[in-house]
Structures are given as structure tokens and as C-alpha cells.
Amino acid sequence: MLNRNPFPTPGEVVVCRVTNVQRGYVQVELEDYTGLAHEQRAQGMIHISELSNRWVKNINSIIANGQRVVLSVLRVNEDRGYLDLSLRRVNKVQKQNIMNSWRYENKLEGLLKFFAEQNKIEMSELFDKAIWPLVDKYGDLHTAFEEIKEEGKDELLKVEEIDIPEDLMESLYQLIVDNVTISKVNMTVEYDVRSQDGNGIELIKEAFRGAGKLRKAKGIETEFTYIGAPIYRLELEAKDYQSAEKHLAKITAKIENVIGSNGSVEVMRDNLSNKQ
């Protein structure tokens, strides 16, 4: 989705489309930035040294014309309208998260275009009076719309900078309710918990009871299942991976604290008991 600024800033991670592959470099366009006044999109370049952490014999084995890639912005020359970008400095998790967010926001932009046409308002006016204020408050449109869907119309009305008529506000809220799905992340881990104490069974039960009673951030749900001594399974649902990992760490710390030094706690992710 187009940004208010014509160029990103160094350190940002952006989605680009490959337009030209040469022996020593790759040219791309940044689909969400307008660039210079005479350009449709901002332009950038990936030097061959920024394509991979390994020696590159054939660029075409890594990247191809028309491909969309997630890149890190190294340098920005706004006067010349050109950017230096890197593929190798973006990790796998960043690539996945940025691309998923980009696809989602483009879907939202399509909905907003339809909304603007239906309500006879220019997209630029809709963004200036309603969308950018939401982005300013929540950081991005995805987060804004999910918060409004989850919390209700009052969440939308809290953004005092929105300047559209009441009937249009109601229509925007209905658009969000009808089309936005609250994202969820599901994580499954298993614990190998052992205790050498005489009351070890009760101690393990106490550990998991305490873990289940831990204060949860909004959107987090947990369920513990006994698989068979010494294995216990945790199903954890959260709004994002960061929240999931944070609560998982709290659960593990709680169990370890209760079990103490006269026992052991191992977290297993890749070798779950139900995998063949």
C-alpha cells in the first residue's frame, strides 16, 4: 500500500519487484513508494555482494525478473531518486512476516478502493481524513483494523483525528466488521518434566496449575494435556509469534521454578510425540 513518503528510510524492510537482472547487480522498483515526481515508483539497486552471504556464480539462480522480494534499505539518495538495497541482510522470519503483512494490506487497499467508489469519495481524501490517522495511532492499517474489529466501534471513535461524516464512519466500521479476520498464531510444544522429589507427581501437577494461572496478555489462550509420563503438551494461541514466544518463556520459567533443582524441564518443539 502506498506510503505518504516518496522514499523509505535506511533500515526499513520493504517489498520490491525485480525489473532488471544483470551480471553484477539487480534493479528493482518499490511498489509502495512513488519516488521522484516524474516516476511512478521509487527505484533501487541490489549489488551482487548484497544478494547472498555466499559467493554468487549465477545471479539468475537467486533472483528473477518480475519476482517480488523483501529487501533491507541500506542507503537512500532522494535527490537522485535511488536506493541501495540488500537481500542477504533480511532473515527468513522477516521475509515471511513482511510479505504476509504486505499482502494483507494490499487486500485492505482493494477493499478501501471499493469503499471509496461506493461512497463517492476520492481515495486521497479518504486516506487523509480517515486512514492515515488510523495508521498514525496504531502503526499500520492491519493492526488498526484488527483492534477495531475486536474492540468495537468505540475503538474507531477514539481516533479524534478522523474527520469524516457520521454516516461514512458507520460505513467504514461496517466494512471492517464484515471483512477483517482477527489473525491468530497457534503453537504446540511438549514438556518433558521429571522430578526426583518424593512428592514429584504432586509437584509436577502444581507446576502446570501455576503455569495455567499465569496472567495472559490479550488474545492469549493456553491448554495443557497429559500425554504420558513424563510428557505434557501445551497448545498456545496468540495474536502474533512475539506474544506467543513471550508467554511460552513465562510458562517455562514458572514450571522450572516449581520443579526446582531436584528435577528437569525440557521443552520440545520438533520431536512432538504425535509425529511419525
From TrEMBL:
Residues 11-88 form the S1 motif domain. The keyword Protein biosynthesis applies. Pfam families: EIF_2_alpha, S1. Keywords: Initiation factor, Protein biosynthesis. GO terms for molecular function: translation initiation factor activity. Coiled coil: none annotated. InterPro entries: NA-bd_OB-fold (IPR012340), S1_domain (IPR003029), S1_IF2_alpha (IPR044126), TIF2_asu_C (IPR024055), TIF2_asu_middle_sf (IPR024054), TIF_2_asu (IPR011488). The keyword Protein biosynthesis applies. Belongs to the eIF-2-alpha family. This is Translation initiation factor 2 subunit alpha. It comes from Candidatus Lokiarchaeum ossiferum.
